[in-house]
Predict the structure.
Amino acid sequence: MFDIDSWQEIFDTIAKNKLRTFLTGLSVASGIFILVILLGFGRGMENGIRKEFEGDATNLLYIWAQTTTKEYKGLNPGRRIQLNNENYNHLVAAYGDKIEFRSGVYRVAFGTTVNYKNESVTYGIWGVHPNYQQIENQDMMAGRYIDQVDLDNKTKVVVISNKIKRELLKDVEDPLTEYLQISGINFKIIGVYTDPAGEREEDRVFVPFTTAQSVFNGSDLINNLAFTMKPEKNFETAVKASLLFEEEIKQYLKEIHKIAPDDDAAVHVNNVMEDTKRFYTLTSSIAFFFWFVGICTIIAGIVGVSNIMMIIVKDRTREIGIRKALGAKPWSIIGMIMQESIFVTAVSGFAGLIFSMGLLEIVGPNVEVDYVLNPSVDFSIAMTMVILLIIAGALAGFIPAWRAANIQPIEALRDE
């Protein structure tokens, strides 16, 4: 029930101790402010890391080979290891039940000249399998991607990026009716793609894998192997499956190419799933640290509220004694003290919440920091924290209130 006299007493007490009340409220508000800002940047890091991994499938294994560094079975170190079609076909046949998408990659010499009419630009030319679209998470803006018929017939077709369309074809309305010349050979444009990783991934054109090997003297050579794993029931199981597959790939390639088992420089596997786990583990650790710092700051504010209420009780000892002498019940004394504690905590908490949420709303979308994207906080989580803060404020006021309620009137009246 609303008691105007109780509220009048609270406002009178606050008015008499403006600085003390302000500093107490500031400590509480700053606790909520710091917690919300830290949680906001924790969410921003999650968003940023998720954005970084949008460029490729998160369950991707990317394999390439370099030179040996150790002698093995009479073979000298320094041998260049070359992947080939046999390696690709074996892995696909042996692990088809584990693989979701697959592609070999044959990269034509970097900076190959691409001509369109009188325009000439250098781009990366990659021969790939049809699944490479899913591996790279590429979206088609027009036309289609490379398919199995293109591979079987070694057709001279090409998929270009939206960036290349703008730079090379410029004002052409329908690029699917046009041809590009790659190293003087005509390739029909069959599709235009975009890459979620941005234009840094759009300096490449894609041709059928078999066509690239045939036209550009690739024989049966492969530069890279790319596989994605089939989905598992949970993230941990998926990580374990990808690590096991990674080891089996290395073991097979080292055995078939006569590489020392402990020569880790000859065969490389970039396991994106492992990188994803590492980043998300780091993010979780940082989020835990942010929660810890924020909650400790709030606790410090609550302790401050409790201390202030104890001082208030001390200052009002004679008043409390008079109230009890006139018949005031212990719970009325407790309610009076707790009401003031809850009021200060609630006002300060909501002030810190509103200011921090407003700051994130204004500044968040404009933050341009690596691995931090649009820091924000779920409003329901923030409100829950404020409600818990108010409950904590009530508890902080209860201890001094209980002490006040148990003061004997005669002792209180003797207080100086």
User: Anything to note?
Assistant: The chain has 13 helices and 13 strands. The chain has two domains: 4-52+279-414, 60-64+73-229. Residues 365 and 374 are 5 Å apart (CA to CA). The radius of gyration is 34 Å.
